Prior knowledge:
Oligomer: single chain
Number of domains: 2
CATH class of the largest domain: Alpha Beta
Amino acid sequence: MVITKTPFRISFFGGGTDYPSWYERTGKGAVLSTTIDKYCYLNCRYLPPFFKYKHRIVYSKQEFVNKFESIKNSSARESLKLVKPDRGVEVHYVGDLPAQSGLGSSSAFTVGLLNGLYSLQGEIKSKKELALDAIHVEQNMIKTNVGSQDQTAASFGGLNKIEFKKGGNITPSPIIMADDKLADFQDHLMLFFTDFTRDSSNIARGWIKNTSKNEDDLKIFLKMVDEGVGILTSKKDNLDDFGKLLHEHWQIKRGLAPKITTSKIDEIYKAGIEAGALGGKLLGAGGGGFILFFAKPEAQPKIREKLKKFLYVPFKFDHGGTQVIYLGNHDPF
Length: 333
């Protein structure tokens, strides 16, 4: 039996440039993101041969099948087809936060599952191999409208600038900050659940369709990645400019494709800003899920009061990426 633990992520700048439709054409995409201490857990084991089915997949639903092709969960189906275990497999999933909420949960599932399946077979894969395999599963096998940042963040973990180049080359570069400034940065971030989820692939389709039309804005996003890194690594203690840059980013992002924002999301964002936040953004492709605010610690009680009908989710940064947290050697068959 193998149990993996894989973090969810928060993306600050550069989203949209991590789509192959952008970086394969222009030669470069980049994002600034971090993983957080909210995880998905995958329990993988060989299924004992006592059942009328060969594979059991348990998530929000339960599937009992004899062939990989019969699995309805697309990530589980294609990941199993890629790894090709030669015996029946049982997979159980649980997550700290809801799926389809803008935190890269789908890719965390894929990365964690691949890590578990490979480990079950005694194969050790590097973080880069896991990221590239997960990108292949989602983009080429499932053909989901998804970029390449979520799989990379889930695999490597940490606060990183991640670059994407032609040929699928990915390069994560950790952001080096003094401990006290990193803690101060964490303390400026607030996460709220909007209370509704969405199908990110449908919204992302609009991003991809509008890539050429949004070229100037996506170039601005690329510049914001370096600006954000510059603010975090500067010797100045004041982080206000990071919040202001997030606000500028959201004003551009919300107009890039239909359904990125809604009147309800706009109301939540406006309320946070009026209560004292310097900036923020809806996470992920858009349409719902989690909204991030950047605010000085002394302003946060007022923001929480203003948004008290929405679930506030405290978090810290994760630095480990996907991990095998249990590897059992007992196999009775």
